[in-house]
Fold:
Amino acid sequence: MHPLDIFEILISKNKNTFLFNKIRKNDEFELIKEDFENYLIFGGYPEVILEKNIQLKKQILSNIKNTYLLKEVKDILGYKEIFEFENILKFLAINDGKILNKNSISMNFGIHNNKVKEIIEILEKTAILHVLHPYLKNKSKELIKSPKTYLFDLGFKNILIKNFNELSLRQDKGEIYENFILNILIKNGLDVKYWNYKKTYEMDFVVESEKGLIGFEIKSKLTSTKISKSIKKFIDENKPKKIYVLCENIDQKKEYKNCPIIFTNHLNIFKIIKNLEIK
Structure:
């Protein structure tokens, strides 16, 4: 099961869910800014959400991590090298949203490539890790090209890397927002991929919908609505139906080669999914 998302958390609190019934301006989401930032730091495990004390939230997450490693991985799945397993899990948490290089992990930790593959598979099957494959026109190559990995729950990520700083102090703020958006897309049953062209141009997430190919570029704050080279290249190469640039501070619509590019708040993702009929 997926952890709760911010919409479900607000439902449980009977709090400001009306914000999700249409596309909203950035300043309208100030009403739930504190709830949203708490979610991005402590995640969506129910026991963590119900606890109000910050230190106890951290302790619960630590207990969840230890239970996963010692009970699920060691006792149930029979994986005995827990120290090795946890080190790789921490490495993946630190590199959340990065392209996975199994050979590099194998060399860094001194273990066989097949063992790295086994650990990744365990993490994926036990709903700890998303493995995201690249979007390619040649579909037969998608599964053999290097994937990206993201953790399912942000609280679980943060207990692994021991970082519960507020969002404004985080160097990985962009990756946190990416993680949030990806989890919402996947929770809605979507087949999400990423796009990387010659290691130079990128689109964070790509979804094929009933209305055509949709690209998602995830940012924190932007200083302008200048269309990036990556967005232009993605449009040139793939002729998408629409691009969403999800960010904290800009509400605007632009266009490039007849493709709408919509700058809007991350929290509009719930309404975007519903409007696009991409389930």
